[in-house]
Amino acid sequence: MFNNSSANRPLWLIPLAVGVLFLFLPLLGLDYGTSRQVQLSIILALVVSGMNLSLGYAGELALGQVAMYAAGAYAAGLLSIHGQTDLLIQLAAAGLSGLVVGVLTGVPGLRMGSWTLAMTSFFLVLLVPDIISVFKEYTGGRNGLAGINPPTVFGYDLGSTGYYVAMVLVTMAWFAAMRNIVASRMGLALRVLKKSPVLASAMGISVYRMKLMAYALAAIPAGLAGALFANLDLYVSPESIGFGFAVTVLAASVLGGSMSVYGAIAGAGVLQFALNYSSDLQQFSPLIAGVILIVGGVALTGGLAGMGETTVRWLGARLAGAGNDNARASAGASAGTLDHIDGQPLIANDVSKSFGGNQALDGVSLQAMPGAITALIGPNGSGKTTLLNIICGFYRGQSGEISLGGKEMHGLAPDRVARLGVSRTFQTPHIPDQLTVKEVVITGRYTHEQASILGVLFRSPRYRRIVRNDERDAKRVLELVGLAHLESVVATSLPLGQRRLLELARCLISNPGAILLDEVASGLDENEIKVLSRILRELRDKGSTIVLVEHNFQLVTSLADQIFVLAQGRVMSSGTPEHVRADPKVKREYLGVDTGNGDQE
Amino acid sequence: MTLVWGGLALGAIYALVAIGYNIVYLSAKTFNFAHAQLLMLGVFVTYTCLMEWRLPWLLVIVLAAAAVAVVAAIENLVAVRPVKDVHNILVTTLGASTFLDGTVSLIWGNQPLAVSFPLGGNAIDLLGGRVYPIEPILILLVIVIVLADFWISRRFLVGLALRAMSEDPEAAQLRGVNIRAMAFGAFVAAGALAGAAAVFVGPKTFAVSTLGDSLALKGFVALAIGGFGSMPGALVGGAAVGLVEILAARYLGGEYSNPMIFVMLLTVFIIRPAGLFVHSSERTV
Amino acid sequence: MTKHRKPILEVKNLTTGYGDLVVVRDLSFEVYPGEITVLLGRNGAGKTSSLRALGGLNPLLSGSIRLGDVDLGRVPAAARVRMGLSYVQEGKRVFHKLSVEQNLLLGGYSLPVGRRQIEGEIERIYGLFPILKQKRHDKAGSMSGGQQQMLAIGQALMAQPKVLLLDEPSGGLAPVIVNEVFRTVDQLKDEGLAVLLVEQAVEASLEIADSVTVLDVGHTVFSARTEERDDMLDAVKEAYMGHPTS
After folding, report:
1. Nearest-by-CA chain C residue for A601
2. Interface test mutation site (partner C, options B163, B174, B184, max chain C beta carbons within 10 A)
3. What is the largest CA-CA distance in chain B?
4. Is B220 part of any domain?
5. What is the DSSP secondary structure assignment for residue A262, as one 8-state letter?
6. Is residue B193 part of a domain?
7. Which residues of B touch C156 (CB under 8 A)?
8. Quick one: average pLDDT of B56-69?
9. φ, ψ of residue A170 in degrees (nearest 5)
10. Interface of B with C in 62-81 (CB under 8 A)
11. Model ipTM?
12. pLDDT tens digits, residue range A225-272?
């Protein structure tokens, strides 16, 4: 139970028990004040949970949750005033309203950088009272929306206890959904995105769509919370939905731990009781919220949930003892279990690119074939990295064609290029934090076989099948690179050599048409280079298309079947290692030496 | 014309906030969310010094600048410097701004307090509109600040160092520029400037504890419209926001001001994402 | 003969890298006043990383760096400039948005003197690179690569260094310009400056070198003084090509 991967699979048994406990709270005979605080905490927790999804998991600070909350509250309130008192219909409408506001504001907001999104979303919060005023015939303007009828379900009046139970059930349902999102491949993909947008798009994930999805999903609990609030007081006032509320939500999120599922409940509960239980404290609430934000932002990166998790892990480690170091048998790479890799020819034809007046690439052509290792070498500034970035879609060249398996792809966005089958590694390995080796590898399959969001939420049979495939393929590629025995280790703790192999495995799992390795040998010692070389030869023999972008001349000449030497934006020489090594131009320009002797192994 | 004066004067205040954001942004590539709250604090300090203690206004400028500079320094040491992940500065400076909001309303309450302008409060006729003397003075003040910035950043070594640092911090370091100290200095200087300018802002806005929040957002809109890092952009952006706000309120109704500003912001984002005065460049990996 | 002199820059067992990626291991060499020390090696051998560690941009993971009598171990980059260590990075990193003259002014930022003296210092640089005087009011970004390289060197000289670190001044320049740059470096050396030159252009830099160290994959594979070896070029070639790997 307490293996290393538990960090990413939030528990469900204990939270379920807590939820059931909450259900029976009214039986304990709480006084009005306390039960009201509990109800307000529940509402706050829903909004905070939405913020966790967009801030903690998608990494975007946006306070728009408050606007979505307002949309939900007014949607529910207006329905009720117009005779539709059924809570289920109101909740559906409120969730949908939140979603609409989320999408409408997310589309322009997410195109900008993080500062801009933060500010535009703040602005959105500021707009709420104005928009309510603009439509005052419907919303009651600054006087608030009065005359909301008590909620019903299928025609039955809920009563105060019934309504309380309904609130808890809705909250439990959302948190179950949130847990399912976070503990899914989508949760993994979000972590990749948070680590590095460049990495995400190189793995075929559309950064923009992923962020929009998280932001829009996060709108749903805010909308639901709005509906619950409208039916609690049977009155909605624009004053309760302002900037102060937005800051409270953020403070609760940071306090509870933004990158957590259940931290939202803890954070919301603490803030609700701390700030509002005693009216003496109310005037200090901005001070308290401010301090929480500062301290939380500086120190407590995991929030309360992080502290809880650390404790649980510590206890778990104690109970389990040090029995986790089993199966260290096959340290070297074994014969892989992937029989054949379906490599595609990668062809660049006459690619040119200039930055300002500087011609970085001038009519470069390159062919990399399946079953061969093709190396691209050249001094600093020769255009290697530029060419790599153009192939991967991070730059667009001024002219030229690039195709994989005959499909033209020059000028496509990086995530499209990746989905067409171009997979790459990075000079410094990009590994998301806190994921296990196996999970990191699985992220490479995210776009290879995609699951719908509904599938994720309800764990559909198709989703379960995809997850089984994830596991199976992850095992295979990890065996291929010799990391199978480390599958449940936290990936960022691996030494550099193994992190490079892990990146290679992550490429392989998507069954790529071509693999681009950017300085894959840099920083490795000779043993690690030997292991790497063996694996690369193995992959080549299975039919993979491999492109090495390298500094290490010796490695290249010993490994590559075909070498392209770039200098000043042109292909200066190309051919077999023997040919290139013997080329006097290469010796002079690239090695800087005019030598008569050949290279020696 | 009266409306235009009013709009431009308001815009000058937004430009002041945007300039403050800019100084911090140029020196450290981060934002101080609490900058508008620093300006607000300056307005309250002005109120106490000028209206309660009846100090001479030149002295008040010095006192307000000093007080706000000290608070800015504390903010930097507590909420900016210790933050490891740049993204978290969003959260911590927002925390600082909330804290300042709370502090101000605890000390001075929530009622708007009038601050009179030391150089006269009677309306005069100017270029076909009726204005209070504070209005053209605010506009002049912000223009002078931008010109002064232009002059300092070209003429003085420390200004050059700041520009160099915003272009390439590493290379600036290799020329002997202590970038940590410079970033701190810029942060505090932005605070001092906000404090000094607050003496002129108070008579226009009143001292009120919600001032920070609305200035923060509109100052940001001014900045985004002009382009991050551009001082003339801050001027133009501020004027645009001020004018739209006043004109929308006059012709459409007060509740339309903010939505119209928002529409303008989105329009600029769609047409020129980097702002009017900044050219966007190709991203590198 | 130089054995009796004191090195101005003394590097012992320098190990540096990024995070857990160790790029250079146990690099040792000395730099003397009035001499040019050349650090050679292929791409990725760790030359630039070594310079960055000397300049204070990369952490010193182990080993020591002494400038004169001072241990530079934990001294921040900006302070090293004041102590007399000027570093010209590769890729002509001048400030493109500033004018030539402003770039030079900034080069004198660390000098403990007044504005007037700094301006006098600028005249000295103009004497060294007359083209800069012609272009004094142009934006640095608008100049050609060779002119930017001269500006970068001039900017570093403004700080009146005892040691000048030069990272690939020949990179991306036409041979004529490279010759001019190297001639200037040679002239500076004759004035008593200690120069540490990192290069890929082997033959050109050997012509002006007083001592040579060759790096490969983070290790020193060759080190010698020019006067001790008549066959320097051959020896360096051998060091370049002869290092076996898998």
Report:
1. C244
2. B174
3. 58
4. no
5. T
6. yes
7. 174
8. 95
9. -60, -45
10. none
11. 0.88
12. 999 999 998 999 888 888 888 888 998 998 888 888 999 999 999 888
Chain C residue with the nearest C-alpha to that of A381: C172
Considering only CB atoms, which chain C residues are within 8 Å of B284? none
Confidence tier at A17 by pLDDT (50, 70, 90)? confident
CA–chain centroid gap for A442, Å, is 13
Using 50, 70 and 90 to split pLDDT, how confident is the model at A591? low
- Domain span including residue B207: 13-212
| A556: its two tokens | 């290249």
**Domain membership flag for residue B120:** yes
Give the one of A118, A283, A293 whose C-beta lies nearest to B95's C-beta: A293
Q: CB-based contacts of C58: which residues, under 8 Å, 6+ apart?
A: C16, C17, C18, C49, C52
What's the CA gap between A178 and A49, in Å, rounded? 8
Number of domain units in chain B: 1
User: What are the backbone dihedrals phi and psi of residue A174, each rounded to the nearest 5 degrees, phi first?
Assistant: -65, -45
Report CB contact under 8 Å: B175, C106.
Answer: yes
Of the pLDDT bands very low, low, confident and very high (cuts 50, 70, 90), residue A328 is very low
Encode pLDDT of A471-498 as tens digits.
999 999 999 888 999 988 888 888 888 8
For the segment A65-88, the average pLDDT, to the nearest whole number, is 93
CA atoms within 13 A on the CB side of A542: 21
Rounded Cα distance, A464 and A453, in Å? 13
Task: Please report whether residue B101 resides in a domain.
Answer: yes
The one-letter amino acid at A61: L
Separation of alpha carbons A292 and A295, rounded Å: 5
pLDDT tens-place string over residues C134-160: 999 999 988 888 899 999 999 999 999
Which pTM value belongs to this model?
0.81
pLDDT-derived band at A322, boundaries 50, 70, 90: very low
Ordered structural domains, chain A, with CATH = 17-242 (no CATH), 346-599 (3.40.50.300)
Mutation target among C100, C109, C118, C136 for the B interface, most CBs of B within 10 A: C109
| Amino acid found at A285 | S
Residue with structure tokens 């600093």? A380
Q: Provide the token pair at A402.
A: 């690039």
Q: A286: which 2 tokens?
A: 């901005």
